[in-house]
Amino acid sequence: MDQDFILKPGCQGVSYKGCGQHIGQLHSFNYLEGLPGSDNDCEYVEVQFKNTRKGFFLNANNIELEKGDIVAVESNPGHDIGTVTMTGRLVKLQMKKANLRPDIEIKRIYRKAREVDMEKFEEAKAREHSTMIRSRQIAKDLGLEMKIGDVEYQGDGNKAIFYYIADGRVDFRQLIKVLAEAFRVRIEMKQIGARQEAGRIGGIGPCGRELCCSTWMTNFVSVSTGAARFQDLSMNPQKLAGQCAKLKCCLNYEVDTYVEAQKHFPSREVELITLDNTYYFFKADILNNQLSYSTDKVFAANLETISSGRALEIIALNKRGIKPKSLNENNTEHNTKITSDILDEDGLTRFDNTKKKKKKKPARKSVDNQEKNSINTAPQGNDNEVSDKPKENRRNKDGHWNKRDKFQKRNNNNNSNKSSEQ
After folding, report:
1. Considering just the CA atoms, what is the radius of gyration of the chain in Å?
2. Of 9, 125, 155, 203, which residue is least crowded by CB atoms under 10 Å?
């Protein structure tokens, strides 16, 4: 084994050098960064500029560069300022993935950005917003049906790229002349789509996360309403459209799963006939593999929820002229899922429900009071005399003997013992 590729104890080059600050949707991770011999294997460097622009440049001067370094690169005219996003072996793979033509001229890296270069870059960057607002007014005055969505100045401030969206072709030759006279820079116009404009501006989607087009998406695939139909989504334009006023890109994420699952479902036009009634398709829970059928074609009536396998079984029986007793296998009356809003349980109206107050039972007299009353009302006489009057209330309500009776019984026993001893 080559000794150059043996990692020494405590070497952490592989663990952190490939990581770096996330820079928009063109962020890339160099998992070979820090390995011995991988840094000097390629003379090309990947450099990213504002938003969605990235390019490959030749490191002709063999400058030691790492991910995150700010460099000045060759441009036409002048120079531009960008951030290094990848070096080493993986740059060639990225160039192959970008389908760069072999005859294209690759520009060079001049140097690492100096303090003077950064000052010019910050000044040019500060003029972008005001330039965009003024250019929109100029395009409106010329009567052009276009919208300028973003402006990007070159690092040295000698060139500006205007990104615009339009439904059709726009003759902006007069616009370029007016913009050049107004801003005294070289003008370049680039047409982008509505999805790309949303990606450049950014925002938060209805899912609560940052837009996919502004974080990781680079290639935009067309989205059709068929993707929503396959997933049984409501055809509401306000819910299906994103911030770009186009159909949401996320409609394409799960459509393949729904299409594959629906292959095992029967046709929705087929009716299920039983001895009791005829059932029509009402709705489907595709991921749970369940179908709901109604006895009416328009609204939900006597809903029955069964599996797709049971539906196919009933269809096969109907083709043979057999009518099952019911849709369910066990001939149960109903197997309908009852769905309720989760807010019903903890709604605000729950505070309006008044609790019924329990009626207080009358307090019982204590045993001591009963004893005092019984002692005060008892006839006076000798202890040996036994009253002929029947004893009342000798047991309390719980079934236990009263204390007075126990005390009297114990005195009688003592007196009888004394008389026997005498």
Report:
1. 44
2. 9
The answer to pTM > 0.90 is no
Q: DSSP labels for 17-49?
A: TT-----GGG----TTTTSTTTTTS-SEEEEE-
Residue 163, class by beta-carbon neighbours within 10 Å (0-12 exposed, 13-18 middle, 19+ buried)? buried
For residue 193, tell me if it sits in a domain: yes
Residue 291 maps to a domain: yes
Pairing relation of β-strands 159-165 and 304-307?
unpaired
Q: What are phi and psi of 292, to 5 degrees?
A: -115, 130
Cα separation, 403 vs 382, in Å, equals 19
345, amino acid identity: E
Statement to judge: residues 46 and 79 lie in one domain? yes
Query: What span, in angstroms and rounded, lies between the C-alpha atoms of 43 and 46?
Result: 10
Nearest Cα neighbor of 305 from 273, 329, 269, 275 is 329
Residue type, 346: D
Domain containing 168 equals: 122-198
Asked whether residue 71 is assigned to any structural domain, the reply reads: yes
Per-residue pLDDT of the chain in tens (422 residues, 90 and over written 9): 344 444 444 444 444 455 555 555 566 667 666 666 565 567 889 998 876 688 899 998 888 888 888 999 998 888 999 999 888 888 888 888 878 877 788 899 999 999 999 999 999 999 999 999 999 999 999 999 999 988 999 988 899 999 999 988 888 889 999 999 999 999 999 998 888 888 888 889 888 998 888 888 877 888 989 999 899 888 888 889 998 889 999 999 999 999 998 888 999 899 999 998 899 999 898 888 899 999 988 888 888 899 989 999 999 999 999 999 888 866 444 444 444 444 455 555 655 655 555 555 555 554 455 555 544 444 444 444 444 444 444 555 555 555 555 555 565 666 555 555 54
